[in-house]
Inverse folding.
């Protein structure tokens, strides 16, 4: 009988292999042949998932997006206080453990590559709008407001949109610093920095509202 392939399980296995190679060897070192060798299959055996480096990078980046989105959805579905939900949502974008550190390495590498590879331009644009949406979710949670229903849905309140822009910039800066200067940041320190920023945002919102 022909061997039955569980494509979802195989996709997960390949995702880990691709992420590991990109994190260790960088974008240029991530080749289809190297992935095939690590996975113990022929190059042709990977064509169901990707057949060139461009497809490999897209595969890796979309896998990161799915992984982060799944964890954030779990926080949104959980019955959590708003400030705690905001904290957990933002933490999913930071290199707080080995898994998330690899995800951040892969994501940043693909974003950098997108500036010289137009095939990744759509990924770059989706990255920006997706992270902006995550920041809106955090802002709404922080203030106990209804969550935006879709990516791109702006707050009617310009003050909240301003806070979203500030938070988006803050998260990008913190992510870059914690990856580049990892020895200066413990997971506890990263969480404290996020917590303090959310408290400042909460206090600013209260100060602008009467009563």
């Amino acid at each position: 009988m022909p061997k039955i392939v569980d494509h979802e399980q195989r996709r997960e296995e390949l995702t880990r292999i691709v992420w590991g190679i990109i994190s260790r060897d960088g974008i240029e070192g991530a080749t289809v042949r190297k992935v095939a060798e690590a996975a113990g299959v022929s190059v042709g055996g990977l064509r169901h998932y990707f057949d060139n480096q461009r497809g490999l990078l897209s595969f890796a980046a979309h896998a990161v997006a799915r992984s982060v989105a799944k964890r954030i959805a779990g926080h949104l579905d959980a019955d959590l206080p708003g400030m705690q939900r905001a904290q957990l949502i933002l933490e999913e974008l930071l290199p707080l453990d080995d898994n998330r550190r690899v995800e951040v390495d892969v994501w940043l590498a693909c974003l950098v590559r997108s500036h010289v590879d137009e095939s990744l331009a759509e990924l770059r644009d989706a990255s920006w709008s997706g992270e902006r949406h995550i920041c809106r979710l955090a802002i709404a949670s922080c203030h106990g407001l209804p969550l935006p229903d879709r990516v791109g849905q702006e707050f009617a309140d310009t003050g909240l949109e301003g806070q979203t822009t500030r938070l988006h910039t803050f998260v990008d800066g913190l992510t870059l610093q914690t990856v580049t200067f990892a020895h200066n940041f413990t997971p506890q320190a990263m969480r404290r920095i996020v917590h303090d920023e959310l408290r400042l945002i909460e206090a600013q919102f209260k100060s602008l509202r009467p009563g």
Remarks:
- The two ends are 73 Å apart (CA to CA).
